[in-house]
Specification:
The protein is an all-alpha fold and 115 residues long. It has 4 helices and no strands.
């Protein structure tokens, strides 16, 4: 980038550049904007919305609840005498999930680990 050229732009654009560039030079800032715009067009990342994540969280709770219900009923039908503590723990988990499904889950967040 040894050769330099002059670019004539409106005064308003220069003011926007100067207001947002921080410690960068005008040329560095413009180059950063162009590079980021070109990368963004090539990637086109898609993110989940808040509603989609909340819906996913509710669906996962329903799925976990159905698994717990299955295993509890499966154990009862086999006649296996589960220890009382284990049965009480499963029951409490079912009630907790049922309570979460009934409420809006305020204060709870879905945490998803992306790779």
């Amino acid at each position: 980038m040894g050769e330099k050229r002059m670019l004539i732009v409106p005064v308003e654009l220069i003011k926007k550049i100067d207001d947002n560039r921080g410690d960068m030079s005008q040329a560095e800032f413009i180059e950063l904007l162009i590079d980021s715009q070109l990368k963004e067009e090539s990637k086109q990342q898609q993110y989940a919305t808040k509603e989609e994540i909340q819906s996913f969280e509710q669906d996962m709770k329903k799925l976990l609840r159905s698994f717990l219900e299955f295993f509890v009923s499966y154990g009862l039908e086999l006649g296996k005498q589960s220890p009382k503590a284990e049965f009480d723990e499963l029951t409490s988990k079912l009630r907790e999930l049922e309570g979460d499904l009934g409420s809006e889950s305020k204060g709870k967040e879905a945490k998803i680990k992306w790779k």
